[in-house]
Structures are given as C-alpha cells and as structure tokens.
Amino acid sequence: MIKCSECGYENIDGLDYCDGCGAKLNPAAAPAAESAAGAAAAPEAAAQPAPAEAAPEAPEAAPPPSEVPTGEITPPPEANAAAAAAAAPAPEAAAASSARAKLQVIRGGRKGHEFPLEDGNNLIGRWDPETGSFPEVDLDQDDPEAKISRKHALIRFEGGKITVEDIGSLNGTYVNRQPRLMPGNPVELKTGDEIIIGKTFLKLIVEPVS
After folding, report:
1. What pLDDT is stored for residue 160 in this prediction?
2. For 69-185, where are the alpha helices, taking DSSP H only?
C-alpha cells in the first residue's frame, strides 16, 4: 500500500496519483513508514520481560552425621530384656533341679525298695506283657494278687511340685488313708505323704540336691 503524504489515504501499489486527493504519490514513503513503525514496535517488545524459567528444586538436605544409618543396628532395650529373659532358666526348671524325689515301699511288697521319680510324668502300675511297656513305678513284683492296675495312677513332678491322680484304676488310689481319689483329679503331695496302691503302701521322700 502507498499512503498519500497529503491526505493520508492508503492507495494500492502501482498508482502514481492518490485516489483520494489526486496528489502525486511517493512510493518510497511507504517502506519508510513501515520501517519506522517496525522500529517503534521493537522497543516495546524489548521492554517486556522474558518469562522466568522455573528455578530448580533445591536438593534434600542430608541428615546430620549422628542420624546417618550404619550397617549395625542397635536393638531397643525391650529386645535386650526379652532376649535375657529367654536365655535365663525358667523358675520351674530351677526348682525341679534343686530337689529329687522318690517313692519307697513301706508295706505290702519289697519293703524298703525305692523308685526314683523323673521330672515330668511318672506312671504307677505294672508291666504290660501285651504292649511290652514298663511304668516308671513298676509294682509288678510287689503285687502278687494283681490288685494294682497296669495303668493305675500318675505322679507328676514339675517345678518342685508333686501331684498324684488316679487314672481310672480298678481298686482306687488313696493318700494318707483319706477317701478314694476321684479319677482325673490331681492331689498335691509333700514329703512324708503315704500313697496306697492296691495292697502296697508307698511313702514319698523329697530330698534337696546339695
């Protein structure tokens, strides 16, 4: 476009005279005007600040030396206490090892014969030829009349505590000549107590281990 310098009318390129006022057109004036307009716009573009780039995230602060984990982990005090308790012998085991017990025949059999009691269960009865099992307290030689059941009674020796219970015998179990024991109901014993099995009398003897 060619802008008329007299009236300002914009004429199409190639005309020698202005269609608005008829004045002589100067073709060189248009590029100069466009250059001036571009130069004026350039400072405005330069004046606008460039968009700021996002600042990089700061790296996470490293923990102080005192908090840096090492290859060795120290267990909490509770874990140490639990381990010590597990390693320590149970009170029951200590009590059981501090004494030994035995049954002594005092009447109705081999008088004076003794049966040491083991820790845990001790079966009182007679040898069973069908199964070949021997009770810990085998009274087969002390019971010629077979008044004692093959599985007559059970003595349990645990944690220094000794109990006896009838396990369904035919002729019953008695302690200190008291009424017959009910099967399955253990009774606690102490040294010197007398146990009657059939026609055999046994005495409990508990001795401390020196």
Report:
1. 85
2. 77-87, 91-97
Strand 99-107 versus strand 200-208 pairing type = antiparallel
pLDDT over threshold 60, residue 85: no
More confident residue, 146 or 71: 146
Q: Model confidence over 166-199: pLDDT tens digits?
A: 999 999 999 999 999 999 999 999 999 999 999 9
Question: Which residue intervals of the chain are DSSP H helices?
Answer: 29-47, 77-87, 91-97
Rounded to an integer, what distance in angstroms lies between the CA atom of residue 197 and that of residue 153?
8
- In contact, 23 and 4? CB cutoff 8 Å: yes
Q: Hey, is 78 helix, strand or coil?
A: helix
Q: What digits encode the pLDDT tens for the residues 34-66?
A: 544 454 444 454 445 554 555 555 555 555 545
**Across the chain, where does the E strand assignment appear?**
2-3, 10-11, 99-107, 114-116, 120-125, 137-138, 151-158, 161-166, 173-175, 187-189, 194-197, 200-208
Strands 114-116, 120-125: pairing is unpaired
Please answer whether residues 125 and 135 qualify as being in contact, where contact means their C-beta atoms are separated by less than 8 angstroms.
yes
